[in-house]
Design goal:
There is one protein chain. This protein is α+β, with helices and mostly antiparallel strands and 116 residues long. It has one domain: Protein of unknown function DUF3067 (HIT family, subunit A), CATH 3.30.428.40. It has 4 helices and 3 strands, in the order αββααβα. Strands 1-2-3 form a 3-stranded antiparallel β-sheet. A hairpin with a 2-residue loop joins strand 1 and strand 2. The N terminus is likely disordered.
């Protein structure tokens, strides 16, 4: 099924709407995204909860705002192309109780800004 939105260049910044479109195209659900720091690494996690669930804690508007915030952080870290590639090529699928995780490869000059 062709995408209604043309594929952005790898160098283009991510947007919340692009993240939403990729999630829905890949897994037919609007999964929650989180940035998590563990053992000196920063990870983007695709959680098992999704907007279409009755128990999802965010409204559609709050979810959209969260995706825009995550996209802004990923762009600021310089990892938009890495995230775009991983989301479109990973063979994993979010499953109940198990988040998918991408260890972000931050540029060395940016690591100190995001890791404590």
């Amino acid at each position: 099924m062709p995408s209604a939105v043309p594929d952005p260049s790898p160098a283009a910044p991510l947007s919340g709407s692009e993240l939403l479109e990729v999630l829905r195209r890949r897994w037919q659900a609007s999964y929650d995204l989180q940035l998590v720091q563990r053992r000196g690494r920063l990870y983007l996690q695709v959680m098992w909860a999704y907007l279409e669930q009755q128990s999802f804690p965010l409204s559609a508007e709050a979810y959209g705002v969260k995706l825009e915030e995550v996209a802004g952080l990923l762009n600021g870290m310089g990892v938009a192309a890495q995230v775009r590639h991983w989301l479109s090529t990973t063979a994993e699928k979010p499953r109940l109780g198990k988040a998918m995780g991408l260890a972000l490869d931050l540029p060395p000059e940016r690591q100190g800004e995001y890791l404590l």
